Amino acid sequence: MTHLDSEITTLKNELGYMWELVNSQLDKTVQSLTAFDKDLALEVQEHEKRVNAIEINIDKACEDFIALYQPVATDLRFVLSTLKINNNLERIADIACGIAEFISDVDTGFNPDILEHMSALHMLSLSVEMVKDLKEAHQHENTALARTIFKRDKVLDSINDKASNLAMDCLDRFPDQRKHTLHVLSIIRKIERIGDQSKNIAEEIIFYLDAKVIKHKKKKKE
Amino acid sequence: MVPKIITRNVDLYYSSFQALKNVSIEIPEKSVTALIGPSGCGKSTFLRLFNRMNDLIDKVKISGEILIDDRSIYKIRSSEIDNLRRKVGMVFQKPNPFPKSIFENVAYGLRVNGINDSQLIANQVERSLKNAALWEEVKDKLKKSAFELSGGQQQRLCIARALAVEPDIILMDEPASALDPISTAKIEELIFDLKKDYTILIVTHNMQQAARVSDYTGFFLNGELIEFNETKMIFTNPKNSKTESYITGRFG
After folding, report:
1. Predicted model pTM
2. Could you tell me the CATH number of the domain that includes residue B226?
3. A-B interface: how many C-beta pairs under 8 angstroms?
4. What is the pLDDT of residue A222?
5. Residues of A in contact with B210 (CB under 8 A)
6. First to last CA, chain A
7. String of b and e for A46-68 (b: at least 16 CB within 10 Å)?
8. What is the span of the domain harbouring residue B222?
9. How many domains does chain B contain in total?
10. Tens digits of residue pLDDT in B21-54
11. B205-223 pLDDT, tens digit each
12. In angstroms, what separates the C-alpha of A205 from chain B's closest C-alpha?
């Protein structure tokens, strides 16, 4: 292995570690929402600082890599995509932290009927799977898997689009739990942003591996 | 894109050794083209095709077409070769000023071409030194020996000497590899400025230099032109895996 390759492996491992941590933050968020575990929600908020610290470390490692190795072609695309994916992952961790704050803010567990009616848990679990599959796609250089994210993001968008009307139903049906309904609506908005960040990561994986820029491109009308 | 130089199916042999294999390329005018590749890949041999410097080597055999401005430079009369070399200037790896004054180094090409008008020569020397970004540094010591200049200044003097006879094409064979980073930066700036008036071909082992100064890059390997494309494409998304291996340092 060349010196350059070993630096790339180190950077990849650091990004993999960041990804693991973000996945763990998401898993804990799901668990704390389903089991109404406020301690776990607090843990997610505490660990956010750790994610931020790793983000800065990876940014610095990328800067060093560019300055010292002056990468080109696939190596350049790798480091550029690592910078962006690192930032996207940090944003996802921010979102998990935001959801955890909503969990901490209520006194009793969220009404399961509200969660069910607005598809919040389903949506959260879809988004968590997306982030995990992206890690798999990045690690095993699988752009086909990365490309599945775009359709899956549309499912999240569609749940998000319907959320306002469903929230109004819940406000009528559960007038004593308006705070729950409004928090669940906010959680859904946040999950939708996990989908957006996942889409960005998928685009970066395709850029890195296939040298194709697909962001901001709309499908041509047939 | 108007091609200034065209080669079609060029083969070159040094005795039985084939140094260039079926090389076809179109080099746009008023642009910088970098030729990269490992030592012995044929890039310098390729460069020397265009001023017919390979002719000076024993047992060289060249076939294929080599055109400058649509005219085959290997079908011209021997008497026209000097004219070709006036049109195609060359700068070498090591600065090679003549043992003369700074002024006479630049004036040399004009004098051997029969120009005697001292005012015309003085004007042309000043213009060439200005174009080579050297005038401000030497204008007060034009009569001093060229050997009193630093390596970087000597290399710019050699470029001024090449410019004095008003070539169309400038060939540069690793022009900055013997220079320090400051002199290298000056040469690179100069190359960037010169391309508005000249077609420049530069052989370099410095990949970052090729990326910085050139518009087009050709990658040679074992006498073959593996890939030729816009420099941006070569250094971001090369099409050939051999090019990718070479520029990312994973060759061999």
Report:
1. 0.84
2. 3.40.50.300
3. 29
4. 44
5. none
6. 48
7. ebbeebeebbeebeebbeebeee
8. 3-247
9. 1
10. 999 999 999 999 999 999 999 999 999 999 999 9
11. 999 999 999 999 999 999 9
12. 15
